[in-house]
Design brief:
By secondary structure, the protein is mostly beta strands. The protein is built from no helices and ten strands. The strands form three sheets. A five-stranded mixed β-sheet has the order 4-10-9-6-7, with no helix packed on it. A three-stranded antiparallel β-sheet has the order 1-5-8, with no helix packed on it. A two-stranded antiparallel ribbon has the order 2-3. The protein is elongated, with a radius of gyration of 17 Å. The mean pLDDT is 94.
Length: 137
């Protein structure tokens, strides 16, 4: 059965024709924006392990914002033609880089499923910093 090896949020990610995944600006769990609504550059990168006997896997990524309408991406992952198995599996990378609309502060959650089975949940916080000298009201 196909399984998720890892997922990471980043500023940028891409997969080249040979299946090599490049990630930049990864590892954050908090994003500051100057104003709301806003749009932020965001990438979702992951690697799915396919058993040699499987030719593809269905990947689904759902974004749940703290309020409003979420987003959903779906893709069928297939190994590159030159991919070779290792320990009985073939690794297939996926990356999507996009401008994410941000309408409120709070926790934004990505839920990843492989072949309709929940695989991982990853999140980040959006905040609007207060100008210096302004107290909480």
């Amino acid at each position: 059965m196909a399984r998720l090896q890892y997922v990471v949020l980043a500023e940028y990610a891409r997969v080249d024709a040979g299946g090599l995944l490049t990630i930049a600006g990864a590892g954050f769990d908090r994003i500051s924006v100057n104003t709301l609504p806003s749009q932020i550059p965001l990438a979702c990168a992951m690697r799915v392990l396919l058993p040699e006997s499987e030719k593809d896997a269905r990947l689904s990524v759902a974004l749940r914002p703290p309020s409003g309408v979420g987003l959903r991406m779906e893709s069928v992952l297939t190994p590159p033609a030159e991919a070779k198995p290792h320990d009985g599996v073939v690794g297939v990378a996926f990356a999507a880089t996009f401008g994410l609309p941000v309408s409120s502060t709070g926790t934004y959650v990505f839920e990843v499923s492989v072949n309709d089975a929940p695989a991982e949940r990853i999140s980040f916080e959006v905040e609007v910093p207060q100008p210096p000298g302004q107290a909480d009201v």
